[in-house]
Design goal:
The protein is an all-alpha fold. It has one domain (3-125). The model has no long low-confidence stretch (mean pLDDT 94). Helices cover 80% and strands 0% of the residues. The protein is elongated.
């Protein structure tokens, strides 16, 4: 697998979560059996905006020819995914959430491992 193919997987997830968090924060939270107050909805929309910004970055990263630029984008995404992994584990521990709440740490973990692979284990496929 090449980094570009991995970007497509990352792009789909980022767009789905970005649109969901930005446009439908209460409905998305209810899937996890969470209830948002106004501040929680606002924070969820900010997170959604960040996911959409990463989607844009990934979208252009798929087409970029420069290996250095693709690796820089992969590193930025790795930082985001490590933070997302830690935060999603923390929220799963402290918030009463259904089993759907396990999806976020798993997805962040898969994405982080994928970027570690392309950055450090097999950088020639970047």
């Amino acid at each position: 697998m090449k980094l570009r193919h991995f970007y497509v997987f990352n792009l789909i997830l980022a767009m789905l979560y970005g649109v969901g968090c930005t446009l439908f924060p209460h409905q998305l939270a209810s899937l996890y059996q969470l209830t948002l107050n106004d501040a929680g909805a606002w924070a969820t929309r900010l997170v959604g905006g960040s996911f959409l910004a990463f989607s844009t970055l990934i979208w252009f990263g798929i087409r970029i020819g420069s290996l250095q630029a693709r690796r820089a984008i992969a590193f930025a995404l790795l930082v985001n995914e490590v933070i997302g992994l830690i935060a999603s584990i923390e929220i799963k521990i402290i918030a009463p959430m259904n089993t759907l709440g396990l999806i976020n740490p798993v997805l962040f973990g898969i994405l982080a491992l994928g970027h570690v692979y392309f950055l450090f284990v097999n950088p020639t496929n970047s």
